[in-house]
Amino acid sequence: MIIVGNFKSYLVRKGDAETVVKAAGKLKTKHKIILAPSFVHLGYISAKKHKVALAAQNLSIFEGGAHTGEVSADVILDSAAEYVIVGHSERRAGGETNSIVATKVCQALGSKLKVVLCVGEAERDSHATYLSFITEEITSALKGVKENDFKNIIIAYEPIWAIGKSASEAITTDDLEEMTLFIKKIVHENYGEKQAKAIKILYGGSVNAENVKSLMVPGLDGFLPGRASASKETLIALIEAIDS
Length: 244
Ligand code: PEP
Prior knowledge:
By secondary structure, the chain is an alpha/beta fold. The protein has 10 helices and 8 strands.
């Protein structure tokens, strides 16, 4: 399984972020753990020393140059992060459009960063319009991606209605299985079989040690926890629950 821990802005002190990264690095696990501290902490934490992969939580649409406050893909790469989260719903809520997300995906891949692309609907309706919404989020973001780069894309399905809730309010196993297949189908139909096989799919939205086992559905490659990744106790409990 792939676990992408998004620390968001939960951890204030760099030492606290490093404690979680260090604890994850010491785990004897077959799972791929990717942790996303804040930009500032990213520059301080050594991926090599702690033997985990690191991700940034965002990146600039600009390559570099006169863009005050922006953090470009190349700067992220230089901080030893291998991955970048793109299009998280909390960023989309702040005005990030599908077109901005598509530009960020291209910037990231162009700089050899791997992409964790977040998609997810705000609500579900009986006419299933959320399926067209997800289709549009995925196809617009992957429009410019070269055939060979699909292996560098992880899609994190994170329904907004399930984020930041309790374990019992996460998605149901059946709905998650259906969405995993649906996402594979979108990639297959729009880009081809090879690309659909190469792409990885994660689920995010109130995942923790309590519910992770029941959410391990066929076709799903892992999870993107937020809160549960931001302390060593909850992160380790989550990973141990996967193996239990
Ligand atoms: C998220 O926002 O990506 C997320 C999954 O958060 P949480 O696990 O806290 O619901």
